[in-house]
Amino acid sequence: MHIAIAGNIGSGKTTLSGLLAKHFGWEPHYEDVDTNPYLNSFYEDMQRWSFNLQIYFLNSRFRQIVDIRKSGKTVVQDRTIYEDAYIFAPNLHAMNLLSSRDFENYRSLFELMSSFIQPPDLLIYLKASVPTLVSQIQKRGREYESAIRLDYLKNLNEMYEEWIENYTLGKLLIVDVDVLKVSENPEDLGSVIDKITAQLHGLF
Q1: Pairwise CA distance, residues 8 & 129, whole Å
Q2: I want to staple 46 with a disulfide (CB 3.0 to 4.6 A). Which of 97, 101, 167, 182 is the partner?
Q3: How many C-alpha atoms does 77 have within 13 Å on its Cβ side?
Q4: Is 4 helix (H, G, I), strand (E, B) or coil?
Q5: Would the pLDDT of 31 be above 90?
Q6: ∠78-68-173 over CA atoms, to 5°?
Q7: Cβ(58)–Cβ(110) under 8 Å?
Q8: Handedness of CA 111, 117, 120, 124 (dihedral sign)
Q9: Higher pLDDT, 194 or 48
Q10: Is 10 left (phi over 0), alpha (psi -120 to 50) or beta?
Q11: Which three-class secondary structure state does DSSP give residue 56?
Q12: How far apart (Å, rounded) are the C-alpha atoms in residues 161 and 30?
């Protein structure tokens, strides 16, 4: 099975992926932020590096999905290919940080790739307000993230809400991160685990 965790920057995807992998014995697949050759450059000059970054993510995520399906294991994935295509790339385009020519090229490539992949069996969306995102970004202290603008996070949040509202590819579970603090409160984590079990196995 393929379980994917979606959510804005700082929503807690990596943390929850690790906690669920430990609890259920799933294999976690993390976003490779540490080895990404474009992230630092992107946050320094978004307009120059946005297309390169999006293509890198598209390639990386497509490869991950192929590996997940080949492995035959139950995998929990930190971020999906759909978020890049329906949220991050359109947001960069809307902010005039990605040209229309590059955006159309990117979307065409994504549409071709997505015709070869299956969506996750369960999508878990981590919903979080901008203050919560900022607080969690500051806590982890990644230097390149210190330059993230508030309007950028706000725009992403609005696009996430729209995408989730229209998500029809499979089962969906929404977790409100403002309310449920899974990394701090074992009861909150237990509540999320119960909801995931119900979604996957129909236990109500």
Answers
A1: 10
A2: 97
A3: 27
A4: strand
A5: no
A6: 45
A7: yes
A8: negative
A9: 48
A10: left
A11: helix
A12: 23
- Active site amino acids: 78
pLDDT at 204 over 60: no
What tokens appear for 136 in the block?
């969690």
- In this prediction, residue 62 has a pLDDT band, given cuts at 50, 70 and 90, of very high
State the amino acid at position 106 in one-letter form: Y
Q: How far apart are CA 34 and CA 42, in angstroms?
A: 14
The answer to whether 49 and 42 have CB atoms below 8 angstroms apart is: yes
Which domains are assigned to the chain? 2-201 (3.40.50.300)
Query: The tokens of 178 are what?
Result: 């403002």
Question: What six digits make up the tokens of 203?
Answer: 């236990």
Q: Report the distance separating Cα 121 and Cα 170, nearest Å.
A: 6
The pairing of strands 75-78 and 2-7 is: parallel
